[in-house]
Amino acid sequence: MFSKHRGMLAAMLCASMGILIGVLVGHLITPSITEEDKKIIMTYQKLIEDKWASETEETQMILDLISTTNLRNNLKELSRKPHLAGTARDDELAMLIKQRFVAAGFDTAELVPYEVLLSYPNHTDPNLITIMDGSKKVVFTSKFKEEVLHEDDNDPDLVVAFNGYSPAGDIMTQPGVGVIYVNYGRVEDFEKLDKLGIDVTGHVVMARYGKIFRGNKLLHAEQRNATGVILFSDPRGVALEGTDPKDVYPNSFWLPGTGMQRGWATTIQGDPLTPGWPSTKHAYRLDESEVPLPKIPCQPIGYDDARAIMEKMGGRAPPVDWVGGMKGIKYNLGPEMLDEYKNYTLRLQTNNFLRSVNVSNVIGTIKGSVEPDRYVLIGNHRDAWGYGAVDPSSGTAQFLETARVFGQLLKKGWRPRRTLVFCSWGAEEYGLVGSTEWVEEHLEKLQARAVLYLNTDTCAAGPILTPSSSPLIWDSLVKLTKMVPGVREGKTIYDEWAAYHRAKNQSSPQLETLGSGSDYAAFAFYGGIPSMELLFRTDKNKYDISKYPFYHTGYDTFYAVDKFIDPGFRIMQGCGRLASLFLKYFGDSALIPYGLQQLSRAIEENLNKVKDNGKGATLLKIYDKFPLLEKSAQNFTTATAIFARKLDSVKDTLDPVTLRAVNDQLMKMEQVFIIPTGLPGRPTVRHAIFAPSQFDSYAAAGFPGISDLLYRIDDLQGEELSKRHKEIRRHISDLTILLQKASGLLEDFNLI
Q1: Angstrom distance (rounded) from CA 749 to CA 247
Q2: Do 237 and 337 share a domain, yes or no?
Q3: Could you list the residue range(s) of the whole structural domain that residue 40 is in?
Q4: Are 669 and 555 in a shared domain?
Q5: Measured in whole angstroms, how far is the alpha carbon of residue 325 from the centre of its chain?
Q6: Are both 498 and 564 inside the same structural domain?
Q7: What is the predicted pLDDT for the residue at 698?
């Protein structure tokens, strides 16, 4: 890295040093230096200054200025009305955010529109599940909207319950049969049913929310030839203290029986009609028939309605761990109904439709004073399935307050070293649409210029810091959490974070890589941009639940946050303080503060996990060069250690040219792991080392391509098995080469 022979770089360095030496000599032999000399010295100092280290007063200002009053006011306005993507209220909020950027004194603030394909329900003919007795009399009809339980819930624009991109359909079961309970709808759940001799072909399946992404539940059912899917929130995940009215919203933060979780139900990310390309006005678009959208209807219901269906189901008794929290319900598997309901039929009707609409991102920038061509980005989506007080507006409230605080610094004459980019994303709830289209449009710029993407989708879903990120960010996360006051009783957020993990018998906070599910996905998994998700979630030591109880329902209201989730708005304040410090730390540090050795450790640890449970022996049997992958990972660890030692010895004396070159090396590191054609079978997921699981888009996976290719390999025979072995050999070879290239990137930068 630090070779003495640098060609052009050396010449440039000598020139700059010559000027500086000349100025200093002149200063010694003359009474004073000229104004031009002063400008040269100031320019040199500006190029090497570490503004993060020198500007402690501004750092403290950030901590002091994040206001709980402003956060509360922001959230109240943002969640005042429902704001589904593509609606008038969503457009109003886009304008509000742009105006806030302008008021803060940002250098630019603009709306960036895309024409995309979204999905909506029919409000005049809502989706319904009905049950009819033997005489065709309707004895049960599902609800299509939550009951109004508090004044904050009562808005006629609240969208009726549906799952985005689920098609219109009308499915009728045969009398006395037709519904099968599939637990969470995971791969292992369907495999369990197979072992029990229960085939879902031709039947409607019922799955409870939780464990995996809803789109994977629907896909798994479709792949097994089910005719439709009913999703419900089970009390075991959303009402742990009972389902009586006194125990649920509006009297607590637990979900009442009429709460229905909406959400997109496909594994496609971005606009479905322009995969891999931005959905600009003149872009070529696929026909809807060419897009692999879901083919079977899917509808969410509350647990009150789930009870009315499941209490009529017979068939085999469920495995013990499949029994949920509805009292008096056996959770029978079906498909038969109980004898007293043997003539009953169930009908699933969905009337959803597709529509092309314009959605806008709002992009604001604060131009950097030294490296304006380097970007530190923060993003949060704007749209919601309902009022969206937690998701996403707790993040948006913070986002706006962070923008205001940086505006205050600007008014005092401060500017960041690098350009800060604030991104309000549109249509995230439909598959990360706005962020994906923007990354696709600006991919080359971002890969050349982006230092960090920080996502703050759901700042305050609970009191526990639950971050995930590229391993390059882990050291910074530990450092900055030690600087922010705690949001509960701890001295700092780090102290609270560490105490939470000690209660789980872990010696230190667990540092996690990214799954999917929010707007960092295109940055991290498509572009290879180091990214982080910053959020606070429910205390799993106390309540082991997914998300938060009223997630994506009509009860995600300002009242619920103000009363139960974050009274006093200290969690949101902590999120804002931490997000703002990240912007300043990565925006102002002369040397980009990546933890390179954390990356190499994470790679080796995840490779070891891939080898667990006999998979290492299987891979070696398939490909005798598998040990070369292990060796390349070890070599990368060695290369990062050598690089880190060299850098540590000279980091305080780097000249401007070398500093820029080292930062270039660091910025390109994760992009080395991008496979242009994508992972096997997943062209839009291109990060070969860290990416979401194929079978649960929410979950993180190390070396996901290997895990995907090993899935159910023992079930293959003949030509299919031979083809899979070939794919595995090719992918292991690709990984080996990528890790070798990563080591090569850390060599002296005059070497190729």
Answers
A1: 63
A2: yes
A3: 8-48
A4: no
A5: 29
A6: yes
A7: 57
Neighbouring C-beta atoms of residue 508, cutoff 10 Å:
11
Report the b/e string of 371-395 with b at 16+ CB within 10 A: bbebbbbbbbbbbbbbbbbbbbbbb
* Averaged pLDDT for residues 399-427: 98
Report the C-alpha gap between 370 and 367 in whole angstroms.
9
Sign of CA dihedral 216, 221, 222, 224: positive
pLDDT of residue 8: 41
Residues 443 and 414 in one domain: yes
- Answer whether residue 419 is part of any domain: yes
Q: What is the mean pLDDT of residues 659-668?
A: 96
539: Cα within 13 Å, side-chain hemisphere:
11
Q: Are 462 and 548 in contact (CB under 8 A)?
A: yes
Within this chain, do residues 69 and 212 fall inside the same structural domain, yes or no?
Answer: no
Task: Render pLDDT for 432-478 as a digit per residue (tens, 0 to 9).
Answer: 999 999 999 999 999 999 999 999 999 999 999 999 999 999 999 99
Q: Which residues contact 403 (CB under 8 A, 6 or more apart)?
A: 100, 101, 104, 106, 364, 422
Mean pLDDT in residue range 268-277? 96
Q: Are residues 234 and 318 in the same domain?
A: yes
Other CB atoms within a 10 A radius of the CB of residue 241 amount to 13
* Residue 174: inside a domain: yes
Distance in angstroms (rounded) separating the CA atoms of residues 605 and 134? 59
* 310 in a structural domain: yes
Q: Where is the domain boundary, 544, 561, 588?
A: 588
pLDDT in tens, 736-746: 999 999 999 99
The whole-number pLDDT of residue 378 equals: 98
Is 380 in a helix, a strand, or coil? Answer: strand
CA distance 705 to 707: 5
What is the distance between the alpha carbons of residues 659 and 45, in angstroms, rounded to a whole number? 13
Say how far apart CA 475 and CA 136 lie, in whole Å: 64
DSSP letters, 305-333, are HHHHHHTTB-BSPPPGGG--S-TT-----
CB atoms within 10 A of CB 681: 11
Same domain membership, residue 364 and residue 423: yes
Measured distance CA(167)–CA(111) in Å, rounded: 31
Tens digit of each residue's pLDDT (9 = 90 or more) over 571-614? 999 999 999 999 999 999 999 999 999 999 999 999 999 998 78
Identify whether residues 41 and 60 lie together within a single domain: no
Alpha carbons within 13 A on the beta-carbon side of 45: 7
Q: 358 — phi, psi (to 5°)?
A: -95, 130
Say how many residues make up the chain.
Answer: 752
What is the separation, in whole angstroms, between the first and last Cα of the chain?
11
CB of 708 closer than 8 Å to CB of 737: no
With respect to residue 13, please indicate whether it lies within any of the assigned structural domains: yes
Tokens of 436: 């994906």
Rounded mean pLDDT, 677-689? 93
Instruction: List the Cα angle 384/387/393 in 5-degree steps.
Output: 65
